[in-house]
Amino acid sequence: MENSWFTLSFTDFSYAFLSVLLEGVPFILIGTLLSGIIDEFLPSRVMVRLLPRNAFLGICLSGAMGLVFPMCECGVVPVIRRLISKGLPVSNAIAYMLAAPIVNPIVILSTYAAFRGQNATEFTMLRLGVGYLVSVIVALAVHNLPLRGVLRRGVLLEASKSHGAERAPGFSIRIGSALRAAVTDFLDVMVFFVLGVAVSAMFSTAVNQEVIMPLALNDWIATSSMMVFAAILSLCSTSDAFIAATFIAFPGVAKLAFLIFGPMFDLKLLFIYSAVFRKRFVAGLAVGLFILIGLICVRLRILGL
Amino acid sequence: MSASLQRYLSAGVLTIWGVVLAHFYISGRLASYLHPSFHALTGISGVVLLLLAVGVLFLPAEDEQCSGPCCEHLHGQRRPARSVLAALILVVPLLAAALVSPDQFGAVVATNRGLIDRISDLPGYKPYVEPPLPTAADSQEGEGTQGAGESYLPKNEAGQLKAQTVDLIFAAEEPTMRADFEGKEVELIGQFMPTRAGNPEGDRFNLVRMFVICCAADARPVAITVQTDKAQPIAEMSWVRVRGKAAFPVESGRRVALVLAESVMPCDPPEETFIY
Question: Around Cβ A267, how many Cβ atoms within 10 Å?
Answer without folding.
Answer: 22
